[in-house]
């Protein structure tokens, strides 16, 4: 069927009779992360990361799982790239393992480690798949953590050195570079609540780490740009912050106290990251909290100028909205320093196996809000997906995974993406999380996000029904 483009005001409308069709050139792909899929934890000179240490700490990861083997992507990448090609993926977002490239986080590069990414990029190129490289997806070299990790200002400078080393090897074939993945998560879950590596539980450390992540982004962006990088991205975990009433009715008016709670959490979750990067300053509400918990001495005079580098795209990782309301006397959430008197609530809606509420409209609200507030930067959905309790069943045609819940989840969220595009969001593409079932951080291997099932005992890959469905969406560039 031929797509017709009509005009509604100044916005293009991408539609056909009964179908949601995406703009020509819309990027379809999938995403993974190094520690979650590569395995080969001790191969070819790789050093230990904070996640190697954390996963070996009793009680930190479900069932004592580690990423030592994961999906064995390090050895099986040619087969995985063939899977991507069969699905019709146009893009593959993966991360570089810093301790594979610089085992101690500094000094000369490990040639054998870089050789792996060299081979992977060439394999993707031969398959016609565009590589989207994320330089840092949480696997900090343990040696740097021993020196203070992200609470140390020096780590930001080490990130820039590492970025330069990777670009020198891959920059001739890689156009798209993300400096960091979800700095908020690592800062506040890794150093604040301690549920992620490195497992510290200290508000001041989390706030220092958050600033140093942004400084590292700015320094790495400078290094990449000076070396010739064409597109620089920062990937964030972002959520609309809403009261329970607003989640059910966008027109609902919160009370003054609830509105203050929403604004405070939005500043901590979203604007604490976006405003320094895209506007060159912190929200006043954030600075007040930082000063109270950590002081301001770690924010040097020129830091915000360094952080505020030209950024081409913001990668948006969306899973669910953040639901809050005023609750006098409620203690502060350790992942959100400064949230005394605020309750983090849930919604009476269907949930994923992670107990995350399924709210597709939150994604369209988020994308439209970001486009409205930060019109100078393009957007890409760099992660979106869901964990469900998959079952492999045997049929006459062979084994299958009939993951209807995941297919329904993806369908609903892609319709939300389409609504945002029609509403004017400058959205470049959509990358499903995740290509493969993998090591799901503190949840180990028992939470499956993949559109490809992985039998971790045999490493056999099996395309799920959701993967077949997603391949059809890609072929049609739209939804029926």
Automatic annotation (TrEMBL):
Protein EC: 3.2.1.21
Catalyzed reactions per annotation: Hydrolysis of terminal, non-reducing beta-D-glucosyl residues with release of beta-D-glucose
Domain of life: Bacteria
Enzyme class name: hydrolase
Keywords: Carbohydrate metabolism, Cellulose degradation, Glycosidase, Hydrolase, Polysaccharide degradation
Pfam family, one: Glyco_hydro_1
Protein family per UniProt: Belongs to the glycosyl hydrolase 1 family.
Name listed for the protein in its UniProt record: Beta-glucosidase
Protein source organism: Sphaerisporangium flaviroseum
């Amino acid at each position: 069927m031929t797509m017709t483009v009509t005009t509604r005001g100044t916005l293009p409308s991408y539609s056909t009779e009964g179908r949601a069709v995406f703009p020509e050139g819309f990027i379809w792909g999938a995403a993974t992360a190094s520690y979650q899929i590569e395995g080969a934890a001790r191969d070819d000179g790789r050093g230990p990361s904070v996640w190697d240490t954390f996963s070996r700490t009793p009680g930190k990861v479900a069932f004592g799982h580690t990423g030592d083997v994961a999906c064995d992507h390090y050895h099986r990448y040619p087969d995985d790239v063939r899977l991507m090609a069969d699905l019709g993926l146009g893009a593959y977002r993966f991360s570089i393992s810093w301790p594979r490239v610089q085992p101690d986080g500094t000094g000369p590069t490990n040639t054998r480690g870089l050789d792996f990414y060299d081979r992977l990029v060439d394999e993707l190129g031969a398959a016609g798949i565009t590589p989207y490289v994320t330089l840092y997806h949480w696997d900090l070299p343990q040696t740097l953590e021993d020196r203070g990790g992200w609470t140390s200002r020096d780590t930001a400078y080490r990130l820039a050195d590492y970025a330069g080393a990777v670009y020198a090897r891959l920059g001739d074939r890689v156009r798209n570079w993300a400096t960091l993945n979800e700095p908020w998560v690592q800062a506040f879950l890794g150093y604040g609540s301690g549920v992620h590596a490195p497992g510290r539980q200290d508000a001041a450390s989390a706030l220092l780490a958050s600033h140093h992540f942004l400084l590292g982004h700015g320094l790495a962006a400078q290094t990449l740009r000076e070396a010739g990088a064409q597109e620089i991205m920062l990937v964030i975990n972002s959520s609309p912050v809403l009261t329970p009433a607003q989640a059910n009715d966008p027109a609902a008016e919160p009370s003054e106290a609830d509105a203050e709670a929403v604004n405070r959490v939005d500043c901590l979750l979203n604007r604490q990251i976006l405003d320094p990067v895209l506007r060159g300053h912190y929200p006043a509400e954030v600075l007040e909290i930082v000063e109270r918990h950590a002081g301001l001495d770690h924010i040097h005079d020129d830091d915000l100028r360094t952080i505020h580098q030209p950024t081409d795209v913001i990668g948006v990782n969306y899973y669910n909205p953040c639901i809050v309301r005023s609750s006098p006397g409620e203690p502060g959430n350790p992942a959100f320093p400064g949230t005394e008197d605020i309750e983090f609530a849930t919604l009476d809606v269907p949930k994923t196996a992670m107990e995350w509420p399924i709210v597709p409209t939150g994604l369209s609200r988020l994308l439209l809000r970001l486009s409205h507030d930060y019109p100078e930067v393009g957007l890409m959905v760099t992660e979106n997906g869901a964990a469900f309790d998959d079952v492999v069943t045997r049929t006459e045609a062979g084994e299958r995974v009939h993951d209807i819940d995941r297919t329904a989840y993806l369908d609903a969220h892609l319709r939300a993406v389409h609504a945002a595009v029609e509403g004017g969001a400058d959205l470049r593409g959509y990358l499903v999380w995740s290509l493969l079932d993998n090591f799901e951080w503190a949840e180990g291997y028992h939470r499956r996000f993949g559109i490809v099932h992985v039998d971790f005992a045999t490493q056999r890959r099996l395309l799920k029904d959701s993967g077949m469905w997603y391949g059809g969406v890609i072929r049609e560039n739209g939804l029926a």
